[in-house]
Write a structure and sequence with these properties.
262 residues, alpha/beta, Helicase, Ruva Protein, domain 3, elongated, 2 domains, 9 helices
């Protein structure tokens, strides 16, 4: 019988070995009793075992063949049909639970955590809740408020649709092998926003464009979109830097750019 799984650097694997932290992460699913759960990257099932105690449908998706084999042999409580040997980033998530909503959870691979959350946004109507462990720096960015150094593209694009709560910090020594950075556990809940008052693609373009020049005033990046002769360039909001704007400010700015482009 296979006793352990070898952590693979290319997959960003760091296996959690502290059971109390695994239980605390699993307890985050209590915010949505009864909702099915999808765990990303279960590894050797440390978190999965506690999720199965919650008495609700649990599926796991794992790209590592060695981990899949380990789970099949050692975690008998998890039915084999609920172990999905696939790449989460390439999956059709609307088909997982017969088109029903589910909660996303995991000790996420740090090298693709942002990509995982952008994938979540694509399926936000199916994922009202998401929680799990990520690199501390990413957790701080997810939860950052306007005016802080951590506030940026990831903060805005996630908080546009989710309320983010930074729950607690996790130290390096509870993993095997230990990562070189601290970790964070976060909880995200879908907010009340149903749609945007502006064009979403233009909104993303403005957010990304301004934060790519975050030390400059907004006027510099907006000029590249509307042209140097646009009357919009005299708007006082463009005297600010991007980290000073709230999400609603960015929506308002996008609407002004839209109007200018018509």
């Amino acid at each position: 019988m296979m006793k352990t799984v070898t952590a693979k650097k290319r997959l960003g694997q760091h296996f959690l070995v502290d059971l109390s932290i695994a239980r605390d992460i699993a307890d985050t699913v209590d915010v949505c009793p009864g909702l099915p759960v999808l765990e990303v990257g279960p590894g050797m099932g440390v978190l999965t075992r506690f999720l199965l105690e919650k008495q609700r449908p649990v599926k796991v998706v794992e790209i590592d063949e060695e981990s899949v084999s380990y789970l099949c042999k050692n975690l008998k409580e998890l039915k084999e049909e609920n172990i999905i040997p696939d790449d989460f980033l390439k999956m059709h998530l609307d088909r997982l639970f017969d088109g029903n909503e589910f909660m996303l959870i995991g000790n996420y691979p740090y090298n693709i955590s942002s990509q995982i959350f952008f994938k979540m946004l694509e399926y936000k109507e199916y994922i009202p809740y998401c929680s799990g462990m990520i690199q501390k720096e990413v957790g701080e960015r997810l939860a950052a408020a306007p005016g802080s150094k951590a506030y940026g593209i990831l903060s805005i694009l996630i908080q546009l649709w989710y309320d983010v709560e930074y729950l607690f910090t996790v130290h390096e020594n509870v993993f095997s092998p230990p990562p070189k950075v601290k970790s964070a556990v976060v909880l995200m809940k879908r907010n009340g926003r149903i749609s945007l008052e502006c064009d979403e693609e233009l909104f993303k373009k403005i957010v990304k464009g301004t934060f790519n020049q975050r030390r400059k005033k907004l006027r510099n990046s907006i000029q590249q979109i509307v042209g140097k002769d646009s009357p919009l360039l005299s708007d006082p909001i463009l005297d600010k830097r991007p980290e000073q704007l709230s999400i609603d400010d960015f929506i308002e700015l996008t609407m002004k750019v839209e109007k200018e482009q018509k």
